[in-house]
Amino acid sequence: MRLNGGVSSPATQEPSPFLTFGRNEWAALADSTPLPLTESDIDRLRGLGDPIDLAEVDRVYRPLSRLLDLYSSAIGSLHSASTEFLGETTRRTPFIIGIAGSVAVGKSTTARLLKTLLSRWPRSPRVELITTDGFLLPNDELARRGIMDRKGFPESYDRRALRRFIATIKSGADQATAPVYSHLTYDIVPGETQVVQRPDILIVEGLNVLQPAAPRDATALAVSDYFDMSIYVDAAATDVKKWYIDRFLAFRSGAFANPDSYFHAYSQLTDAQAIARASQIWDSINLPNLVQNIRPTRSRATIILRKGSDHRIERVMLRKL
Questions:
Q1: Quick check: 169 and 202 in contact, CB under 8 A?
Q2: How far apart are CA 2 and CA 22, in angstroms?
Q3: Would you give the distance in Å from CA 238 to the centre of its chain?
Q4: CB-based contact 222:132 (threshold 8 Å)
Q5: Can you tell me the distance from the alpha carbon of 136 to that of 117, in angstroms, rounded to the nearest whole number?
Q6: 173, 208, 282, 305: which has the fewest C-beta neighbours closer than 10 Å?
Q7: Residues 282, 288: contact at Cβ < 8 Å?
């Protein structure tokens, strides 16, 4: 059943700016949308610990990609009409989508899936994906500031550089460069950059991308002010903690097993030790960041994807036009 928050009894529900679609109702929107992905595509795009499959992509991400395609197309039509009215000849700027959510909630998989799906729509063949990890301050700088244990919190990013990068893209510049982050070394890769050249669509994925400008800089634009659409991947904190621990356990024989990994020592932990350590990291770092910084930005999103305990999308909330 669709829950239209704007038509509600004051005694039962506050008016809402969102339309809410149950899983089955949202899935029905896929009937008129082709699915350009195969099971092998899903295997390649799936994140560790994220049990997404072709059926989930078919029911949730196929109609979502179509909706984003429609929004992007509508912005293009508005650009054409406005430039004609103004007598200008400026090129349309890229359509920018922000994707936010907690550590381990599956936002990276969502971003990769949408990048692949959107790039197969005729109107947006050039889709780029940037993660805000590249704009984390280097470990040396985090240590100097005494905030190494707050990595992922808003103050651990070079927010000015990130904002400058997004502004460059949105200005219509021919290209912009972003730093590169290594999850193996857990640090910025010196001298390495990712070059983005006039995409049709740019997806920006990160923990805090929907945050408003900092209070001390309230007159400045925030990164989210440059977004044309934004998505928040949501789930109960208890479920996300479980997914985080499951992923941590899997990393012991994966990424952590690499001798060059920053977390190589964790590969030798027993199950009990690994669960205890992952729980401690979650409770002391990731949960406070979620509660204090990430979750409060949920209401700023255009679309909220709410997951159940099985990692599958239970409902989709879409901001009304």
A1: yes
A2: 6
A3: 20
A4: no
A5: 28
A6: 173
A7: no
**H or E stretch at 95:** strand 95-101
Q: Which CATH number fits domain 3-319: 3.90.79.10, 3.40.50.1820, 3.40.50.300, 2.60.120.10?
A: 3.40.50.300
Q: Taking the mean position of all CA atoms in its chain, how far away is CA 313? A: 15
pLDDT at 9: 37
Confidence of residue 29 (pLDDT cuts 50, 70, 90): confident
What pLDDT, on the 0 to 100 scale, is given for residue 219?
Answer: 62
Measured CA distances, 318 to 8, 13, 175, 197, 281 (Å): 17, 17, 32, 30, 33
Lowest mean pLDDT among 31-40, 115-124, 137-146: 31-40
Phi, psi of 19 (to 5 degrees): -95, 135
Judge contact between 149 and 283, C-beta under 8 A: no
Look at residue 35 in the predicted model and tell me its pLDDT.
Answer: 60
The number of residues making up the chain comes to: 321
Partnered with residue 186 across adjacent β-strands are none
DSSP-based three-state secondary structure for 306: strand
Q: In this predicted structure, what is the pLDDT of residue 146?
A: 97
Residue with tokens 């998989």: 109
Q: Kindly give the pairing relationship between strand 313-319 and strand 18-22.
A: antiparallel
pLDDT, residue 8, reads 38
Residue that the structure tokens 């899997």 belong to = 250
Amino acid at 176: A
Cα–Cα distance for residue pair 304/116, rounded to 1 Å? 20
For 247-286, how does the pLDDT look when each residue is reduced to its tens digit (9 = 90+)?
A: 999 999 888 999 999 999 999 999 999 999 999 999 999 9
Backbone Cα Rg of the chain: 20
Lookup result for tokens 């550089």: 161
Distances (CA, A) of 306 to 148, 310, 318: 31, 11, 11
Query: Tell me, what's the pLDDT at 124?
Result: 72
